Amino acid sequence: MFTGLIQAVGKVSAITRSDDSAVFRFDVEDFLTDVKLGDSIAVNGVCLTVVEFSPHYFTADVMIQTLKLSSLGSLDVGSLVNLELAAKVSDRLGGHIVQGHVDGVGQIAAIVPGDKWQQVDVTIPAHLMKYLQPQGSICVDGVSLTVGQLDDAKNQISVWLIPETLKKTNLHARNVGDSVNIEVDVLAKYVERLMKRGNE
User: What is the reported pTM?
Assistant: First the structure.
């Protein structure tokens, strides 16, 4: 489990692709001091398993299903990625419950700079819009954000990024048209399932 509070920004330093998987190497400093083989790390909101690491990098195997269902397949060497270690039971849950199981890939539709914030409009896969509501939580590339506005006609949401979020994540480097991983609030999905099957 994760919280959506990004702890470091890493960089893709190598990608080895095969027919049904890929091995990614991510370079990062001052982040891997408490990591062991087999630990989970969220990379742009995707839960990956550490298969090799040093103080300066780690590698992870990514299966073809994950490459298809997330934006990891579009990463290149040099791409910046948001990183978060799995939460400890004793940690403060400062964001919201994030599983690292991406529900779909969205696209940056607009970026509007402001004096103290930046408005970012994101087009969401249509089937995920029902799980979103204003002031609710959404995970965008692993970052826990609050939904500011909804536009159901366009399948878009607006979020506002404060300077601290821009400074500590890779969202400052995002441009209109970029793909982003989307994970909706798991509680909404459980409620939907319960309502469908609860009386059976």
Answer: 0.88
